[in-house]
Design goal:
2 copies of one chain form a homodimer. The first copy, chain A, is of the alpha+beta class. Chain A contains 8 helices and 13 strands. In chain A, strands 5, 6, 7, 8, 9, 10, 11, 12 and 13 form a 9-stranded antiparallel sheet that branches. Chain A has a 4-stranded antiparallel sheet with strand order 1-4-2-3, with helices on one face. The first copy, chain A, starts with a helix and ends in a 5-residue tail after the last helix. At the A-B interface, helix 7 of A face helix 7 of B.
């Protein structure tokens, strides 16, 4: 992925394939930063990723090499936040770009998405959309593509990861956009004209509900729906496992601080972290 | 229905059960208006309804009596337009009222719904909602109830019909309201707290697609979706029959005239009445 993106002129973190612990040290010297190691298969939601600094014990640095797949070393990017640019593209080449969102991560897992990314300068948002549209066109993507980006502290955009499917960072679009990422994915696959990706409200906030020590979920609906008639609860019906994305909640409106409070309250209540 | 509504103080057209053609003439004299005859079972979408005036031949006046069910005679109301007040009510008695809509009829069939009803005075809208909430409470309705009303030329509201289910006049809420009538119907049946019925846009316009001499539907999507990325097409997958409601289209936004043009264009194009 890194080779191909670099080949089509898309900015990525500096990177190279490493063979062993000595290779990691050499990469750190080359980059002049701490290093991120990634197994090149099987990673998601922070799995298959190691953060390496000068104090990391050698046996931890050796861990990724035990997976039996090539290991990628990347510079540890000094980023202000993570963004996601979601696009949809159909076989005949029509493409639409959703508003660029901020993706809030905790322990390598997306926990919250704010659409659009607050305070993102217009030219940087357009640049992120252009990167995603370029990737979709160059890789001949059909359907939804999410491009996850670092916004660096010095204002650059670097591609972190690609997801060639309807993506967690696009779930806000179910209620928040004229056409949801799922509808546009289907339109794209069917080669029907794509629907407008425009936002329907000034802000939409989505918070994931991650698995853990959850009690029964259904009774929490009664309290939350009574408390907040504008709250949308999505539950995937998956088995409960710690850290797994089991569902999400969405709210939309004008006042970002209030929306974030409402969404986080609901997610925390479903999880049982708060009881009122 | 008329007896029960009158009993709970809800205004209806003047009415009485008639036994024969002579009874119809007598009702016309009593009301001082033309008469509407309705069979008391089996009617929908204009079926089971006869408009009778002084020039109607006796054999037509006699028609409804051949259905073998009691026949209701009602005054022919001098109305400016038809409105619909949709509410949802749950077993524990919570209820929500959607914005009151205008329902445009052609040949006894609803062809268009405008949400909210343009130019409806606030106090009259509240009266319509109060009527619907009263009917729901008095009849112990669980789920969605649509109350179809005449807005008379002298500004009164009279109940025309009831529909105790998600109703055509509420389809606009799928995209147009915070909580669709279908979601609130399910919440009501499950006795979960109801969601906000508030409108999401200044206006939402829904136009039905009625069956007739239709060619293949699917190819029309390509033109319509390309022409209008904000258009929402709903197709029910029913067999095609003249006058049958086969699907509907919805648009929402600020400019009512433009919304009506877009929605009618799409419905007429799907029907094949226009070809561009």
């Amino acid at each position: 992925m890194r080779a191909r993106l670099t080949g089509i002129g898309v900015a990525c973190p500096r990177h190279r394939i490493v063979e062993d612990v000595a290779g990691v040290a050499s990469a750190a010297t080359e980059f002049g930063t701490d290093v991120v190691l990634k197994t090149t298969r099987g990673g998601y939601d922070g799995k298959g990723v190691w953060m390496i600094d000068a104090s990391t014990p050698a046996d931890v640095v050796a861990e990724p090499f035990r997976a039996g797949v090539p290991v990628l070393a990347e510079e540890r990017v000094d980023f202000a936040r993570e963004l996601s640019a979601v696009v949809a593209r159909s076989p005949h080449g029509q493409a639409v770009a959703y508003p660029v969102v901020e993706s809030v991560q905790r322990d390598g897992i997306c926990v919250e998405v704010i659409a659009p990314a607050p305070g993102l300068p217009e030219d940087r948002a357009v640049e992120a959309q252009r990167v995603a549209l370029t990737v979709a066109a160059e890789l001949d993507v059909v359907g939804v593509l999410a491009v996850e980006l670092f916004e660096t502290t010095d204002g650059r955009l670097l591609v972190n990861e690609l997801a060639m499917r309807p993506h967690n960072s696009g779930h806000w679009s179910i209620e928040g956009a004229v056409t949801s990422q799922f509808e546009n994915h289907l339109r794209a696959v069917l080669d029907l004209p794509l629907g407008s990706p425009a936002a329907r409200a000034p802000y939409t906030v989505m918070v994931n509900v991650l698995g853990g020590d959850l009690a029964e979920i259904y009774p929490t609906y009664r309290h939350l729906m009574a408390r907040d008639p504008g709250l949308k609860v999505h539950w995937y019906g998956k088995g409960i496992r710690a850290g797994r994305k089991l569902g999400h909640v969405t709210v939309y409106g004008d006042d970002l601080a209030s929306l974030r409070e409402r969404a986080w309250h609901a997610a925390n209540y479903i999880r049982g972290d708060i009881d009122e």
